[in-house]
Amino acid sequence: MTGLFSEVFLSALLFGAVTAAIPLLLAGLGEQMSEKAGVLNIGIEGMMLAGAYLGFVGAFYSGSLWLGFLAGAAGGVAVALIMALLCVRIGLNQIVIGIALTLGLEGLTALLHHFQFSRSYPRLPAADATVIPLLSDIPVIGPAFFKHHLIVYLAIALVFGMGYLYRRTQLGLNLQAAGDKPAALDVAGIDVIRTRTIAVLTTGALAGLGGAYLANVGAGLFIPFITNGAGFLGIVLAMLARGRPVWVLFGALLFGVCLSLTTAMQVAGINIPTDVIQMLPFLAVMIMLVLFGRRASLPAALGIPYERGAR
Amino acid sequence: MSIDTAPTVSATALDATSGAATRRDILHRLLMTLGPILAALVIAGCILLAVGVDPLAYYGFVLEKGLFSPLGIQQTLTRMAPLLFLAAGLIVAFRAGMWNLGGDGQFLLGAVTAAASAPVFVQIMPSWLALTCSFLIAMVVAMIWSLVPALLRAYQGVNEIITTLMMTFLGTSLANVLVKLVFRDPGTTVPQTRTLPVEDRLPRLFDTTITSGLLLGLAAIVIVHLVMTRTAFGLKLRIVGANPRAAIHAGLGVPGLTIAVFAISAGLAGVAGAVDIIGVQGNVRADWNPAYGLAVIPAVFLARMNGFAAIGFVFLLSVLSIGGESAARRLGVPNHFTLVLVSIVLIMLALAEYFDHRYNQSRRA
What we know:
Chain A is mostly helical and 311 residues long.
């Protein structure tokens, strides 16, 4: 058992947890913004897949991870554009369109992968880490938290940026109003449709980026259905966080530790089906809900398309 | 969540003087369904062209294998059985305003329960009784699985979208654990449950390969439709769905009704799993998850939670998925293309409904 709790093992476990948490964090932050503005974005799984595929293609052909991330975000935005057009502008049912987009992107990315990469399964080289001086020398914690790709630190900074946006800026208040009482926002002279569109497109960019990170840094390759429900986990995180970005971070780290534990157990040769460990984060959250069963504080107009002048 | 769909439908049907208007109405509906599907086929065809496949050949295969060949249509009708049960469960939940997005977890647990119990039961009791017991157990297990989200929603006000989504992740993993550790058939190398002998499965209809589960599914969805539109219990559920606060003021026991809705919805999803196992598959392999629920949810919405319309949409989904599987084998287009096709069809149908609605509004104004 000494091998299981050695320093190297522990820091590898935590390193893996952060790597697994980043896509969930980005998806959760994105979903949170959509939900704040009153759009239940079930298409986020599709946006992540678009980001993962285009992110991989971009990084593979250009040789630059950053171009890959950019392409991934653009892919997410492209899917979000359809969602914004259909659900925000003309007010179609968000659940129908969201699920349809997820199904469509699952199929489309798998199809493109089949014709492009299924014979060779190319891989990207390991991502370069940005080593933070001094902090990375701390035993265990240093290699686990301070030797990641630069985008990891940016994603964590984004958590606080989002917090500032929601609390201190006009746009943050507008987003909140678009979800809680869109008619009031409209009366105040702010375009509800536009506010919600901004939110959905931002969600697309963040989800796409999360997908690209998952493929390029997390896995180093694209395989069909690579997100494996990460987008739905993002929805769960956003709803549990009750509108606070910091809670999305905590939640993402919790799920990240459990995902990382799954891999670590296999490496350590402990013979428990991965399914058992995959159940842990959900069990933890369900137990928390049963014990503390807090009333959901979701925006009042969540899921309801806004139509000017309607009753 | 509109309550008024049923009255308008019956009003047009009862209006005997306007036979021509009724005919025009039917024609209009047919056009509003076939038009968007055609548009979706054209768009999806462009994608096929882009990857270098002849769309006409592909659609030819889909139609031939999914609809016109005797074997194909039998497979299509067989595929409908579990989908119909899932749709019936979703109709109850959605009409009552509850977002049961946990259908896949409930489906898998029902399937595993049926797969574990049926081979044991058939050895100790007559076949019909054994299958009935398996169905009942699958239903009860799925109902119990939905109890946590139901209680949390009923008494704590916890949003059921989160809880059912999490329970579906949990349920999928639990089903796998059960297959791999508890109910594993010792006689096979691949982890799977014991196989139910073909002669003990649900009887096939007449001389065909169609499972009699289809009839059960049709009966379930029609009964659900009638209960929701024609009975006091259904009216109560629709009131809860339309306005929960008004329902409390009307003296309805909302927490009890909430639990009932979850139990019915999950129970039907569990039976859907059982009908797929007892009727068709015979066993559950590890990591088997057809994810039917995800495709059925939008279909139920597009059917506006109308049971008869849902039958039509389920049929369409089955044709596309069976036809797509055959075409995939023949033309080298991976099966994933079916997902793309289904997705575009759903979006086009939703768009058509919107434009139809807009057109009607502007004509009235």
